[in-house]
Amino acid sequence: QVQLVESGGGLVQPGGSLRLSCVASRNSARFDIMGWYRQLPGEQRELVASITRDSTMNYADSAKGRFIVSRDDDKNTVELEMNNLSPEDTAVYYCHGAIFTWTASNPPRIVPGRTRDFWGQGTQVTVSS
């Protein structure tokens, strides 16, 4: 079972920056996609940013222009650089990795319902003066 361990959360003032890091216990190249979600109390977990194995990135509108997601499969890591933080960014941030099941067709397609999801334990980010 692959484990994901986050680090880098904490307290930062508005306008400040933080870098979150997530290390996979095994070869992160296995993950078709990795990324970061966040969750506020009483709300659903929402995607912040993701990056595929071929480095295609996707960002939530709230993250565009401020956050940068990156992965290094040689180091088994995915990171999230967060800039110009605001109190609205306060949340627990979760590292995520997904392994898809692909069809044998050409081109291959993702088999619905057969995705394996992996989550970190979460790291608190608080933006406050």
The total strand number stands at 11
Structural class: mainly beta
Order of helices and strands: EEEEEEEEEEE
Major β-sheet annotation? 7 strands, mixed
Proportion in β-strands: over 45%
If helices are DSSP runs of H or I spanning 4 or more residues, what is the number of helices? 0
Shape, per Cα inertia axes: elongated
The gyration radius over C-alpha positions equals 15 Å
What's the overall average pLDDT, rounded? 95
Task: Give the distance, in angstroms, between the N- and C-terminal Cα atoms.
Answer: 40 Å
Stretches with pLDDT under 50, minimum 5 residues:
none
How would you characterize this protein structure?
The chain has strands spanning 4-7, 10-12, 18-24, 33-39, 46-52, 57-59, 67-72, 77-82, 91-99, 116-119, 123-127. It has 129 residues and is an all-beta fold. It starts with a strand and ends with a strand.
What features would you highlight for this structure?
129 residues; mainly beta; 7-stranded mixed β-sheet; 4-stranded antiparallel β-sheet
Question: Gist?
Answer:
The chain has no helices and eleven strands. It is mainly β.
SSE blueprint and pairings:
Layout (H helix, E strand, L loop, with lengths): L3 E4 L2 E3 L5 E7 L8 E7 L6 E7 L4 E3 L7 E6 L4 E6 L8 E9 L16 E4 L3 E5 L2
Parallel strand pairs: 2-11
Antiparallel strand pairs: 1-3, 3-8, 4-5, 4-9, 5-6, 7-8, 9-10, 9-11
